[in-house]
UniProtKB/TrEMBL annotation:
Residues 21-154 form the NADAR domain. InterPro entries: NADAR (IPR012816), YbiA-like_sf (IPR037238). It comes from Candidatus Kaiserbacteria bacterium RIFCSPHIGHO2_01_FULL_56_24. It comes from the Bacteria. It catalyses: 5-amino-6-(5-phospho-D-ribosylamino)uracil + H2O = 5,6-diaminouracil + D-ribose 5-phosphate; 2,5-diamino-6-hydroxy-4-(5-phosphoribosylamino)-pyrimidine + H2O = 2,5,6-triamino-4-hydroxypyrimidine + D-ribose 5-phosphate. The lineage of its organism: Bacteria, Candidatus Kaiseribacteriota. This is NADAR domain-containing protein.
Amino acid sequence: MESTHGDLNRETEDAVYFYTPNFYSLDSFSAHTVRIWDKMFATAEHAYQWKKFASSEPDIAQKIFEAQSPNEAKNISIAHRESRLPNWDDEKVSVMEEIVKAKYEQHADVRKVLGRTGTRQIFENSPVDDFWGLGPNGDGGNALGKLWMKIRIRFQSSTP
């Protein structure tokens, strides 16, 4: 895939690229609370970063939970990377899938935005993250975009 970072948030007939306004609701940093694991998180990013430490480092998890922004939550997690769950890399996609599903179920505007994607491919057009997004070269794994497409298929097939 070619780099698409000249326009971080664009649409084509075949694809939706999200990172800024039009489809930003699909981003883990968007201002959508997520109720999951008996907690109300400020954003999906808070929930994701919190889960890395919840069972092993409750003090770090609490700092993440209380972070004032998703960026702060991520930075706390990065600062304590060595203390996260040892099998995190094996669990992170399924954890994010749980979070994305909860976000979709809890917010009508997120459902509407996802519905606007139709049957198009969805790409997180992050210029830095080549696991969750397309990364700096446009050839990243796009794990978050793939999760949103999976959620879309699951809920479209269950809607009469």
